[in-house]
Amino acid sequence: MNKAATFNPDCQLCPRLADFLREVKDDHPGYFCKPVPAFGDSDPGLLIVGLAPGKHGANQSGRPFTGDHAGILLYETLYKEGFSNNPVSSHAKDDLKLINCRITNAVKCLPPDNKPTTSEIRQCNPYLSEEIRALASGAVILALGKIAHDAILRASGLKLSSYKFAHGARHELPDGRLLVDSYHCSRYNTQTRRLTEAMFHQVFQQIRLMIE
Ligand code: URA
After folding, report:
1. Domain count along the chain
2. Mutational pocket test of ligand 1: of 39, 47, 61, 68, the residue with most ligand atoms within 8 Å of the beta carbon
3. Per-residue CA distances from 167 to 144, 173, 200 (Å)
């Protein structure tokens, strides 16, 4: 396992991201504009790892995948597959509860153009390491996209070249955990039908069988 660190809700270790959050806060004073913490069950069978908060989504609401297009399909699917009590995540103080599931991001702060740099991904990685370390052996980690996949491997101290990202792939990690890959549920991927609803559902159905 890589270096781990307890999530710091006031983290400013990435100067470019800290500056950008201040800029966005000036333009949108009501937005959260801080590192976005993980959300959900504290001892989950499934940890979902996204890329980074969206500007008008998690960065606005303070909850991963909440307020932007990417979250619509994710939260609907979680509900349909029995991982939550509600198909919609409206805001950080609604009564949505995730069941045996937790959602986090590889990078906790909003990056300009939705693109964190490699050094920002690395800087944030100890928080992900801590989240993975907290999982029970046998838990499933779902990577939404290649950046999340690589960040999970790095956080677990594993060689990236030993585990190739592919939609629907399932990797057994040496610590007993399972890594499952999916294309990211971004607007771009769903609108181009690189990722369809059916494909996304299948991923969660596969995970359900692994957890049970
Ligand atoms: N919102 C998030 O929190 N993460 C993503 O990867 C995309 C949108």
Report:
1. 1
2. 68
3. 9, 17, 10
